[in-house]
Amino acid sequence: MNGDETKKVESENIKRHHRHELAENQCSSTLVKHIKAPLHLVWSLVRRFDEPQKYKPFVSRCVVQGKKLEIGTIRELDLKSGLPATKSTEILEFLDDNEHILGIRIVGGDHRLKNYSSTISLLSETIDGTTGTLVIESFVVDVPEGNTKEETCFFVEALIQCNLKSLAAVSERLEAESMERV
């Protein structure tokens, strides 16, 4: 796929899965990451609502309420130091294993991310002649009192970029390890 085709696929996916209704006091953004690992491998990490610490570097522990991973499942996260929070409570709002889409909403915690929800979608793509994955993550969140929309978006985008960079590193390492075993 050339650059124009890639942008078209990204744009179509964003229009289809990443539209958020914004209130006046909210901000939203969409981030894109191209990962040099097959979709099934990347999805195996992303869909694990019960184990986000496998690729999210700021999560130290996750406890899921209930035994089943389904819409409405709640997870309690312990966050690593360095963030202006120690806990977050999230609910699984959407999980589609066929379309490779996961949606979460934050419902509690000791942070300032109120009314936060995000959607992450994955699509198979070819990167430099090999199988890869297009990852798109979007969010919407309230702008905390005392902050601007730009400051809020910058902060959340930085967190998501860190998570996506880590997702790429973990996925690409696992892919390299699986190729070594072949």
Automatic annotation (TrEMBL):
<dbReference type="GO" id="GO:0005737">
    <property type="term" value="C:cytoplasm"/>
</dbReference>
<keyword id="KW-0539">Nucleus</keyword>
<dbReference type="InterPro" id="IPR050279">
    <property type="entry name" value="Plant_def-hormone_signal"/>
</dbReference>
<dbReference type="GO" id="GO:0010427">
    <property type="term" value="F:abscisic acid binding"/>
</dbReference>
<dbReference type="Pfam" id="PF10604">
    <property type="entry name" value="Polyketide_cyc2"/>
</dbReference>
<dbReference type="GO" id="GO:0009738">
    <property type="term" value="P:abscisic acid-activated signaling pathway"/>
</dbReference>
<protein>
    <submittedName>
        <fullName>Polyketide cyclase/dehydrase</fullName>
    </submittedName>
</protein>
<dbReference type="GO" id="GO:0004864">
    <property type="term" value="F:protein phosphatase inhibitor activity"/>
</dbReference>
<dbReference type="GO" id="GO:0038023">
    <property type="term" value="F:signaling receptor activity"/>
</dbReference>
<dbReference type="GO" id="GO:0005634">
    <property type="term" value="C:nucleus"/>
</dbReference>
<dbReference type="InterPro" id="IPR019587">
    <property type="entry name" value="Polyketide_cyclase/dehydratase"/>
</dbReference>
